[in-house]
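dumping the sequnces here before i forget
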Amino acid sequence: MNDLPRLARVLALAGAALCFAASASAQDKTMTITATEPMTTDNPYGESSAPVYSLWCHTYGCLGRYDYAAKKPVGILVEKWEATDPTTWRFTLRKGLKRHDGGPGPTSADVIHSLKRIRTDPESVQSSFLANVEAIVPVDDLTFDIRTKGPAVNLVSALFDRFIITSADLYEKHGREADKKFAMGWGPYKLEQYQADRRAVMRKNPEWTEIDGSSTKDSPDLVILQQMREPEQRVNALLNGEVQMARLVPPQLVKRLENRPDVKIQKTGGIEVMFLAFNNKMEPWTDARLRRAVAYAVNRPLIIDRLLGGYAQIQDGIVGPNQFCYTGKPDRANEYDPAKAKALLAEAGYANGGPEIEFNTAVGRYVSDRQVAEAVAQMLRQVGFKVKLNTPEYANFWADVRRGKSPFYYMGRGSIFDPSDAGGQLFGTGGSPRVQYSNPKFDELLSAQYAEADPAKRCQLWRQLNQTLIDDVPSHFMWTHTLVTGLRANVDINVDSSGEFWLPSAKMK
Amino acid sequence: MQRRDFFQVKFVVGVTCLTLILVLAIFGNVISGHDATEQDLMSSLQPPGLDNGGYYLGTDHLGRDILARMASGARVSIVIATSIVLISGVFGVVYGALSGYWGGIRDVALQKVVETFWAFPPILLALAILAFFGQSLGNIIIALAIQRWIPYCRIARAQAMVLRNREFVSASKIMGGGTGWVVTRHILPNVLASAIVIATFSMAGAILAEASLSFLGLGVPPEVPTWGGMLAEGRSYVVGAWWIAVFPGLGIFFTVLGLNLLGDWLRDLLDPKSALNLR
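..and the predicted 3d for all of it:
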């Protein structure tokens, strides 16, 4: 009985503490954002997709990012960069940054460590964007040179938004555990929680200052990336206020967001190029006539109009209107012409139908992907192809594509602003095994544009490269989606053409 | 209400529901005049009506006729459910009858296998099988049948354990009847009534399970129309084009309702004691 007053005091104190905690968290501006991409590992080098790069750029920090509104690259961890000769770029890291645990700012040693880890960590899948990098050489603590194997005028756009810098010191002490228990970087947000394929929670780094000195006081204090693959779930969560930002709203659900005073819609012309990819070394796609027949058989305007609600722009080749080096419509394009498709099939020996082909698509990864694939399959059947449509789980689909095991598939390639990186990766000889295309003329032009410092001349080279891809049809390019993002009315954030955003410049009332 | 009347209501409603579904499965495509997989993007999202180009139940986002797809979905559901019930029923009854009739160590061993299968969550097991072996009609039947034989097995075993000590079974054995003879002549005929009742409920469960797997995109191949697949496709359009999801939903509802009512009626008819116990 004598313990009762003490118990009451303890309870009262606990209650007060809880109230304080509750009031403190109530003052936090929390923004929950839907995530649609797989987030399977806390290893910052273990996945390669634009949203995952964006997460780690916000927390660990990356060299820089492309500001689509200002149409120029902007530093995140670096403040200066310049080409010192055709195969060397010099970067200078920002001064005065502190690691989230109060440790020192990023140094050249951290950049070298990050390159090494990307190339040697068995879980890393990011080495392709560094393929042209020969070495990183420190000049001093804050300055380093990146030497490339050949001329690389596109190096900045290849590295920015991608090259995540992690602490050499923490990795040396803790190894792989550093990603789990000491995920400390220098970015504008500090990672608080990472649950694979569920959520990532980030808290604003109070030490962070934007490189141009702009204020971040209105940006959200706490950001939650919440995995929501189903578009209906994303839209419902936005409408009931569970999330503040619903990404990739498909056309058929846009109506639900219209005329709602508590919700607004942002539409952005995307740079994720959607295409029908052939494995050019697998039968029957070694025959260019069959690839061309596919291009003629698919009625892209009809699919955009009836299935995508007009929320897409036709893309001829790898360079489209939202991208760097777009110089207007190509001289020739593969427009819908089923008669030509049938003639090509007949010429290839399939006058009586065929060939039998397997067509793979992801489901739920891209806007209306399954519906698009079903429409494409039907159009191919109408000209004579015998199509078997497969809808494997995304993980299986992606694994097959990456290993070059998928003969014919519908997918997208994100973040193609400067086409060099994706162009080389997908269509250059010896690039990724996804398409397995090899054309000496294309390779020669590709090398030439890497060395061309004059943007106008470089873009003319890209015009020729683009035309080569259209004529040879190693893949048939379809469109870029108009990205529709649903936002709560109290949120201002600019979703850029890559589908990503920069949280420090977001505003939450 | 008199007990007999109640039985008749169940019977009449159950049979009516199932007859309607059978008529849809057999004559649906003839009535609609369209192919279930034929696309016409220019006619996408047409609402139901009598004067919209013969699309009486409307069209989906790819301009495919909902009525034709309903008919095709009904056939798929019936084929899958019937196959599952036949495979799991025959296997489960024979397995259970042998296990119960033999008894002893053989019964224990056979029941350990049952318990192992029983331990897997059914949908998870089906998902694993389909993810591993791929999507096909045969694989979905195997994936769903692999656990559905257990209720038959349990009932058959219980009845066999009772029957094996009855005089007519002993007499048959004394007269030289082997295991095969006794089980087929004396055990299985006595298990049949219970198995039929289980089969009707199991058929309803199989239809729901197939619809669930198709809804998750792991049922039959994507271009084979199924009610579950239609539901999954229709949910994104439910605000502007309700008919894509509502009609397959009604198809599933009436089929399952019909089978459950018929199962209830059969149970009351074949096993009046359990019906009285329920009251």
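Confidence is low (pLDDT under 50) at residues 19-24 of chain A.
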